[in-house]
Design goal:
Number of strands: 19
Number of helices: 19
Structural class: alpha/beta
Largest sheet: 5 strands, parallel
CATH superfamily of the largest domain: HUPs
Oligomer: single chain
CATH class of the largest domain: Alpha Beta
Distance between the termini: 49 Å
Mean pLDDT: 92
Radius of gyration: 27 Å
CATH architecture of the largest domain: 3-Layer(aba) Sandwich
Length: 572
RNA sequence: GGGCCCGUAGCUCAAUUGGUUAGAGCAGAGCGCUCAUAACGCUUUGGUUGGGGGUUCGAGUCCCUCCGGGCCUACCA
């Protein structure tokens, strides 16, 4: 039994996330959290919404609502969807929480005490009509290079040339279209990451077994050009964590907030405090997960994220932690993911291309999506969602291999022996071989899950399901029954126990179907098995059960074609 | 422009980090079974590992080069 702290990258508050976002961190994190709990570990699984920044302010304005109201509504929507996908967060927090405000200000104060904060005066584009400073990519104009008239201030999408906003010809605000722009002087706080470069480098070198994707991104930032650069941690916005030095005001920074990348990862910690506060627990309850001097020395901390988030988790957030000079818990293992593409292109939030979380749940239950997404997780390279592949996987793996196994066993038993585990007979060589095979597969499954090898875990689980069908075909209880009902009873008794075992082992992937199986079997014991032989003896002769409805229905060709057409274009 | 990643069977992916004859699932073909959601099982077809060159006793794996795809490049978050 160990203590495992798990965080998923926190999704941005703005809008409903698509399946690519889901499989890029939250879903595999949930798989691991469920597995870790099932193995008897003490788990703290944290996620939250990332609520600050310019896009949230603009989306709220567009919706005609105060930002705080808009974020509260969107948080509720995202929370409902995460529940719908059975994401088992211990806390789904909010980066705008008072807890995060205080903690972010606290860290900033510590960094300042340690001489790691510098005030830098810089020039930024200000839009008079919008009454706000504009990030580079919110300025549009004509590209001086290729003449494209919708080039953004950071880069021209047409010729891919990197730009400075002042390079643009006829620049205008992407928010309002106003050309009333001016360059204004503004003062910001910078985190002096460059002074922590060697410490960060040594820390990353000390990590064992991190994916290439993770370390190569970190190394690039550390060593490219002049090495790790200092970064601004404040912004001229209204919505965010007000800049304060711990509990003290920060002179000259009165109207500024911290920049999202600084406060968002701190929310991992703050959300754990949100959890403790909501549970009515005192501070030691969350600090024992995060403070090495207050009980977190035996915690293993695993982070899940998409590859775009790696620099913040390998460098920026560790810089905050290390720079504080206090014994806060650093991450032990980072699991990063590539992207999921949609039917030959990218998922697109702006174009509504692909399947979004709400739409997915409207057409099929969570387990169908969980199974496909997890068994196709983009671990080694980008993966691709196609409706043909989705239909084939769901129909074959879930309906035919697992669902049909449950169906054939329970219905055969009901018709020959009634709705109770039959007694009589005994296992022989075939049953011993099956048990040994499953024991070996269980060990492999656990190995892959421990290593967070998601696709390999799924393949091994499927192989265990398939082993049940192979066994049944060989044992042929329908034929044996005619000559030797006791022997057929022994085969079916084992098969019913196999269903219970599958329910337990499959729960991290398909929690709802697992629950249905356990309920049908009236099984009270859902403990993770140490010994397969013992686990296949859990339901004794005479134990009642009921035949469940089919666990999974099949996706028809007509449905597939309809969905393919419906989700190809603009979200309605 | 610079950096990194990827390219393996019709499709989705493996290959113990340089080690026998490159393996699974799906799809296809054949056979079997009849308990079950026309489900299940067995057998089987299918590869110049993107092209070319090199290092090595040995290369999918390392090096060079070309082709194709993707990501990042610090003010989106």
């Amino acid at each position: 039994m160990a203590r495992i702290l798990i965080t998923s990258a926190i999704p941005y508050i703005n809008g409903i996330k698509h399946l690519g976002n889901l499989v890029g961190s939250q879903l595999p994190a949930d798989l691991y959290a469920r597995y870790a709990r099932a193995r008897g570990n003490e788990v703290m699984f944290i996620c939250a919404t990332d609520e600050h920044g310019t896009p949230a302010e603009l989306a709220a304005a567009k919706a005609g609502k105060p930002v705080a109201d808009y974020c509260a509504e969107m948080w509720a929507v995202q929370k409902e969807l995460s529940d719908g996908f059975r994401l088992s967060f211990d806390k789904f927090g909010r980066s705008s929480s008072p807890q995060n405000h205080r903690l972010t200000q606290y860290f900033a104060g510590k960094l300042a005490e340690n001489g790691l904060i510098e005030e830098v005066s810089e020039k930024q584009v200000y839009s008079v009509a919008d009454g706000r400073f504009l990030p580079d990519r919110y300025i549009e104009g004509t590209c001086p290079n290729c003449g494209y008239d919708r080039a953004r201030g950071d880069q021209c999408e047409n010729c891919t040339k990197q730009l400075d906003p002042t390079d643009l010809i006829d620049p205008r605000s992407a928010v309002s279209g106003s050309t009333d722009l001016e360059v204004r002087e503004t003062k910001h706080l910078y985190l002096r990451q460059s002074t922590l470069k060697d410490q960060l480098d040594a820390w990353i070198d000390g990590q064992e077994g991190w994916p290439i994707l993770t370390t190569s991104i970190a190394k690039k930032w550390l060593h490219d050009g002049d090495g790790l650069q200092d970064r601004g941690i404040t912004r001229d916005l209204d919505w965010g964590v007000p800049v304060r030095k711990g509990d003290e005001p920060w002179p000259g920074m009165e109207d500024k907030v911290f920049y999202v990348w600084f406060d968002a990862p701190i929310e991992y910690i703050a959300a754990t405090k949100e959890w403790a506060d909501a549970e009515g627990l005192d501070d030691s309850a969350w600090r024992r997960w995060w403070r090495l001097d207050e009980g977190a020395d035996d915690v293993r901390y695993v982070q899940f994220m998409g590859k775009d988030n790696v620099p913040f988790h390998t460098l920026s957030f560790p810089a905050t932690i290390i720079g504080s000079g206090e014994p806060w818990k650093l991450v032990d293992y980072i699991k990063s993911f590539n992207y999921l593409n949609y039917d030959g292109g990218q998922f697109s939030t702006s174009q509504g291309r692909g399947v979004f979380m709400d739409q997915a749940l409207a057409i099929l239950p969570a387990d169908y999506w969980r199974w496909w997404l997890l068994s196709h997780t983009p671990e080694t390279s980008d993966a691709e969602f196609t409706w043909e592949n989705f239909q084939a996987s769901v129909n074959k793996d879930l309906a035919d291999v697992l669902g049909n196994f449950v169906s054939r066993v329970t219905k055969f038993c009901r018709s020959r022996f009634g709705e109770a585990v039959p007694g009589g007979g005994a296992g022989g060589a075939r049953e011993a071989a099956l048990t040994a095979d499953l024991q070996a597969r269980l060990t492999a499954y656990e190995g892959h899950m421990d290593a967070i090898e998601v696709r390999k875990s799924a393949a091994e689980l499927r192989a265990m399901w398939a082993a049940g069908n192979e066994y049944l075909q060989e044992a042929a209880p329908w034929a044996v029954f005619k000559e030797d009902p006791d022997q057929a009873a022994a085969i079916i008794r084992l098969s019913l126990n196999l269903i219970r075992l599958y329910a337990v082992l499959s729960a991290p992937f398909i929690p709802d179907a697992s629950a249905t199986m356990l309920t049908a079997l009236k099984a009270e014991d859902a403990e993770w098995p140490d010994d397969v032989g013992a686990a296949l003896d859990a339901l004794p002769a005479g134990h009642g059960f009921s035949v469940p409805e089919n666990l999974f229905r099949k996706i028809s060709d007509e449905e597939r074609e309809e969905w393919q057409a419906r989700f190809a274009g603009v979200r309605s």
